[in-house]
């Protein structure tokens, strides 16, 4: 349920009809909010529930998911199939979606995809009574590598010209990690960035960066300590040194 709560704040709302009257929002939810596939479990399922008072028509699309230049990159794929491709969910009802792997897992690295579920707008009435908004939800789909999981994380901190700190995490392991929050502090505990809620995936072999502000300027060469929590309540800690720009 935690994944569902976090993901609800990231729903993309598309305005389909803009008029200066109250909005009519679509309403469907998905559970679970993340799927795990493997050679032993090539098929998984999720449930789409319609919380609204009208039928919800939802279209499915699976895309390949990679990361580059500190951002997410999506592309077409036929390696994972979601069925049915379009479904109608009655008011208060649910439908099951099945997601299946159509290739062998990679030997060394986890594969990552996203299943997007886009609500399709109902037919537009002759005289619209409001602004119709639809939901789009992206569910991560991960395919475990054949090799055993090997966590490997490398942190780095670099001073910025405006007195901040660029904190980066390189994921050298063979599976993703999801950072929920992090805190950077001086090793003596005298100064801190405070706990920052970041909710960021770092895929296998990729890195992500965050710009942080400390409660006081720090000199380069100062020893630091980073503490981060993952979505599995696993805590990461590391010692590092503030580098010059």
Tell me about this structure:
The protein is mainly beta and 245 residues long. The protein has two domains: 2-143, Immunoglobulins (Immunoglobulin-like, Sandwich), CATH 2.60.40; 153-243, Sandwich (Immunoglobulin-like). The chain has one helix at 2-8; strands at residues 12-15, 23-25, 28-31, 35-37, 43-50, 56-68, 71-76, 80-83, 86-89, 94-101, 111-120, 131-143, 153-159, 165-171, 177-186, 196-202, 207-212, 223-230, 235-243. Strands 1, 2, 4, 6, 7, 9, 11 and 12 form an eight-stranded mixed β-sheet that branches. A seven-stranded mixed β-sheet has the order 16-15-18-19-13-14-17, with no helix packed on it. The chain has a four-stranded antiparallel β-sheet with strand order 3-5-10-8, with no helix packed on it.
Count of individual domains: 2
The coarse overall form would be elongated
Cα-to-Cα separation, first versus last residue? 41 Å
Strand percentage, roughly? over 45%
The CATH homologous superfamily of the largest domain: Immunoglobulins
Number of extended strands: 19
Q: Indicate the CATH class of the largest domain.
A: Mainly Beta
